[in-house]
Amino acid sequence: GAGADNDLYINQAIVFIEDAIQYRSINHRVDSKSLWLYRWYYSRTCQWILSLTITIILALAFIEKPSSLTVTSDVRYRLPAWNPPCGLTESIELLCFLVFVVDVSVKSYLVGWEEFWKNKWLMAYILTLIVSLTDWIVSLSFLCTENVRIRRILRPFFLLQNSSMMKKTLKSINSTLPEMASVVLLLAVHLSLFTMFAMLLFARTKDGQQDKEWMVYFRNLPDSLTSLLVLLTTANNPDVMIPAYSKNRAYSIFFILFTVLGNLFLMNLLTAIIYNQFRGYLLKSVQSSLFRRRLGIRAAFEVLSSLKEAPANAQQSYVNTGALQQVLQKVEMDSRCKQAIMRSLKMCSCDQLSAAQFQKLFEELDKDAIRQHPPSPDYQSRFMQKIQFAFGHPYFGYLGNVVALANIVSICVVLVMDADKQPSERDDFFLGAINCFFILYYLLEMLLKILAMGLKRYLSYPSNRFDGLLTVILLVLEIATFAVYGFPHPGWRPEFIGLLSLWDMVRLVNMLIVFRFLRIIPNMKFMALVVTTLLDLVKNLRAFAGILVVVFYAFAITGIMLFKGAVVPMGNIRYIGNKLNTSWPFFNLFFSFKEKCGFMGLFGYFQADVTYCLLYLLSLNLICRWAKIYFVAWWLISSVIWVNLFVALLLENFIHKWDRRCHREPLSDIEYQRTVELMFRDVLEEPTEEELMEKLHQHPHLQLCR
């Protein structure tokens, strides 16, 4: 009947608006049961369970055999790691796979058969599950003794497919690769030409004493290519040139030219190209997100205009404001946006909304998130008003910064004076006394600010919350110190009573005081701009960090399978019978090539600081020369591509904030919060009504009345 149809239209509008808020596609089933399933699937509980499952299956690598969960990563001193029995981690894996099977089944049903075949991610999801389950069965049949487990490498895919922003970012990176390839090819030509020059310059001579450069670095083509590739990362600079430079100073010209052309020109040119191209592709991705939002809002308008009580008009459709209010009550959205839309709706004098008015209402979703600080208390007393003016004034905050600086200077002076003293020779009376004085000042400052600003206004500022929390912690530590060791007095020396020694507690207090000095950042405009840029990257660009985790994880697991057993601990012996002591940081923690060619090793290689280890491993014949492909691939993906992508995004975010800073005066009582989509809001193009209606008429499950 009409009532059932109206309920269906209301539910469709609710889902379409929620899709618009989250930038989701609206191409899914829209019948009553499917809408209920759809909202259940995207509920916080279900998404939390899915996220927890992904976290668990990724974390299994830390406890699976070979395990590295030990206090120390030095293989000479740590106790044998716990290895779970066969079937324990496999059982957890199976539960995770069952959750993923339910996940992909629900997704496939909701999008429908026609959309399923167009969705490459869903098909890849199913293929990944089939391969993983097959490998799981093989693993159990071998009683968990097999060395190669394909499903471990595939685990990051579950993280990747669950994030729409990560998928868009990956698509943008993939589109940028052809432009990157031209510079990488130029880099390869540069490397090849200088390799040939090096082999000609440092050829073998009759005098074996003068052939150190040839013997160590340029003995043959693979060694020469590897030496210069490592030099491109500056990891073996200046070691690679020392033998030749000792022989003749003029040889330094070769290495200077190679470094200048490679590092200063080609690598920076790659950064410029990545910034230019990737920004364009990211802009396209954000443009498509805007189109999805506008499409979801327009779809909600079209279904609400189909309600039986909606006014009939052959020329134009309208939506009753009452129906929209009913929808907004049930939509899950930010309370700020919902209240703003409801206010705008009440201020509207008309009972019906056109498509343009309907769309304009939801433009509130595109605006900056604005948080206004509560007002200060309104004191009637003249004396309290003076107190409020004095301690609420910015100069009182500046005084606090000066006191914090004095505290840091005093700690530095004491640390310099006591640097060479044994713990038993130290007299902590002076340090304890000044800490007591400064902590009392911090407490007094916090109380006076609360009195002047009011508790709610005080807590509304992040810098005040930061100050207040550290002040309370410092006060608790100081009281605990006095309770255990008494008040500071001459000859107040460290003793070990209870959980921590006096020196440990004083050090902890001093570290927190140093950390508290970061309060000056908001008062330094340019520094605050830099810090907010970094915080925005952390908050808004999680997709890039997620892809980096995917790459790290895949390479770490691959390294475990390729290099397991290549190096073993041999006590303090550096090299015995082609075996290498793994106490190097490069081989430690998720963790060492004996166990895991993992995160810490790859993180060092990510920084290009331990590239020289590749040469050392090759020189000891611990790994075959084909292993260079693994290390070079990681260097290209991490240091060359990913670092440049991060620099490009850092530049984009910083330039955007700098432009906003120049064009808008900062308001003390208002804080603006930006998202990735809002970064590009000023340059995005609004979709036309024809484009929206054409896309809506192509919806596989929605039949519009017009």
From TrEMBL:
UniProt GO BP: calcium-mediated signaling; endocytosis involved in viral entry into host cell
GO CC annotations, alphabetized: late endosome membrane; lysosomal membrane; monoatomic ion channel complex
Top-level lineage group: Eukaryota
Entry's transmembrane regions: 45-63, 92-110, 122-143, 180-202, 253-275, 395-417, 429-448, 469-488, 508-531, 543-563, 605-623, 629-651
Catalytic activity as recorded in UniProt: Ca(2+)(in) = Ca(2+)(out); Na(+)(in) = Na(+)(out)
Gene Ontology MF term list: calcium channel activity; intracellularly phosphatidylinositol-3,5-bisphosphate-gated monatomic cation channel activity; ligand-gated sodium channel activity; voltage-gated channel activity
Family annotation (InterPro entries): Ion_trans_dom (IPR005821), TPC2 (IPR028798), Volt_channel_dom_sf (IPR027359)
Location within or outside the cell: Late endosome membrane; Lysosome membrane
Gene3D superfamilies registered for this protein in UniProt: 1.10.287.70, Voltage-gated potassium channels. Chain C
Record domain Ion transport: where: 55-278, 397-654
Bilayer topology annotation: Multi-pass membrane protein
Main location: membrane
Keyword tags: Calcium, Calcium channel, Calcium transport, Endosome, Glycoprotein, Ion channel, Ion transport, Lysosome, Membrane, Repeat, Transmembrane, Transmembrane helix, Transport, Voltage-gated channel
Family: Belongs to the calcium channel alpha-1 subunit (TC 1.A.1.11) family. Two pore calcium channel subfamily.
Protein name: Two pore channel protein 2
Organism listed in the record: Alca torda (Razorbill)
